[in-house]
């Protein structure tokens, strides 16, 4: 179950009645705001999405654990209130396709995704850099005063920075922007989009926004699998293992303390 803006039907009507709203069975902006307010009061992630965790909390007489597909015997409702319901609902597909199917693997995976996306909030790369930001982050692409003519123009910035690599065409092709980072672990570059495209039925190459809209977690799971990170996760639950995985994901150890903290939290819930 996942109710969100645009959903319709009896479940929406039942939820609206519970929240004291006009029960028209249509999940619109007003219902979303009421859901967010209710989630905040009840200690849940206020994302405005009603998945298994929010539904169970709202209707204590409804048992939803059977509606959440287990991952190798794990009950995913343990994660309710700790990560968004929309993320929980995507986990079974990731587990099936990429074998993220043990407590240790899943905890490691979610810890990395959560950190990389700022708590499962960012689904695409923020390229709105100032001139100073460009000089600090992408200095080799913006020598002298070139950054001044690119500042605060994400399309131009990505088209230059990602040109002629990762399968992208030159700057004029704008492939760098078309295939900019999306998903919870920033799928980037035409080659990677093309490889991920083979994992889903949708045409990702021609509709890259689908990665951020529909496949934020699954694209991260594809990346995870492409780097053989299940094998690293199987080494255990030590800080050293989190560090090793972080280097594969991040290229360094930026945010390591936060990744370790969240791994321990998720592992305690799932183990």
Describe, in short, the structure shown.
The protein has 271 residues and is an all-alpha fold. Helix content is 48%, strand content 0%.
Task: Kindly describe this structure.
This protein is mainly alpha-helical and 271 residues long. The chain is built from 15 helices and no strands. α6 runs antiparallel to α15. The protein is globular, with a radius of gyration of 20 Å.
Secondary-structure blueprint:
Elements lengths: L9 H9 L10 H13 L10 H7 L26 H4 L2 H8 L4 H14 L14 H7 L16 H8 L13 H4 L11 H8 L11 H6 L1 H11 L2 H5 L5 H12 L5 H15 L1
Helix pairs in contact: 5-12, 6-15, 14-15
What features would you highlight for this structure?
single chain, 271 residues, mainly alpha, Muramoyl-pentapeptide Carboxypeptidase, domain 1, globular
Biggest sheet features = none
Q: Indicate the CATH topology of the domain at 10-98.
A: Muramoyl-pentapeptide Carboxypeptidase, domain 1
User: What integer value in Å does the Rg equal?
Assistant: 20 Å
Tell me the strand percentage band.
under 5%
What's the level 1 CATH class of the domain at 10-98?
A: Mainly Alpha
Low-pLDDT residue spans = 61-68
Question: What percentage of residues falls in helices of 4 or more residues?
Answer: 40-55%
Structural class: mainly alpha
Average pLDDT reading: 91
* Beginning-to-end CA distance, first to last residue: 24 Å
Shape: globular
Quaternary organization: single chain
CATH architecture of the domain at 10-98: Orthogonal Bundle
> How many β-strand stretches?
0
Order of helices and strands: HHHHHHHHHHHHHHH
What is the number of helical segments per DSSP (H or I, 4+ residues)?
A: 15
């Amino acid at each position: 179950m996942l109710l969100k803006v645009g959903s319709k039907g009896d479940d929406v009507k039942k939820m609206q009645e519970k929240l004291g709203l006009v029960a028209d069975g249509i999940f619109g902006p007003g219902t979303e705001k009421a859901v967010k307010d209710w989630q905040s009061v009840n200690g849940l992630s206020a994302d405005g999405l009603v998945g298994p965790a929010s539904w169970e909390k709202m209707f204590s007489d409804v048992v939803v654990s059977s509606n959440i597909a287990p991952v190798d015997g794990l009950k995913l409702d343990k994660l309710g209130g700790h990560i968004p319901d929309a993320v929980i609902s995507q986990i079974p597909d990731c587990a099936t396709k990429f074998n993220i199917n043990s407590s240790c693997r899943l905890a490691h995976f979610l810890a990395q995704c959560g950190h990389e996306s700022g708590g499962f909030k960012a689904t695409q790369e923020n390229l709105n850099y100032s001139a100073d930001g460009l000089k600090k982050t992408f200095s080799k692409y913006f020598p002298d005063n070139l950054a001044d003519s690119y500042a605060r123009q994400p399309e131009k910035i990505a088209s230059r920075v990602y040109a002629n690599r990762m399968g992208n065409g030159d700057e004029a092709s704008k492939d760098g922007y078309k295939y900019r980072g999306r998903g919870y672990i920033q799928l980037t570059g035409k080659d990677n989009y093309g490889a991920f495209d083979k994992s889903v039925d949708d045409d990702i190459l021609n509709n890259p926004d689908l990665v951020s809209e529909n496949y934020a977690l699954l694209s991260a799971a594809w990346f995870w699998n492409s780097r053989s990170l299940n094998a690293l996760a199987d080494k255990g639950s030590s800080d050293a293992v989190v560090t090793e995985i972080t280097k594969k994901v991040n290229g360094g150890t930026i945010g390591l303390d936060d990744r370790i903290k969240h791994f321990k939290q998720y592992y305690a819930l799932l183990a």
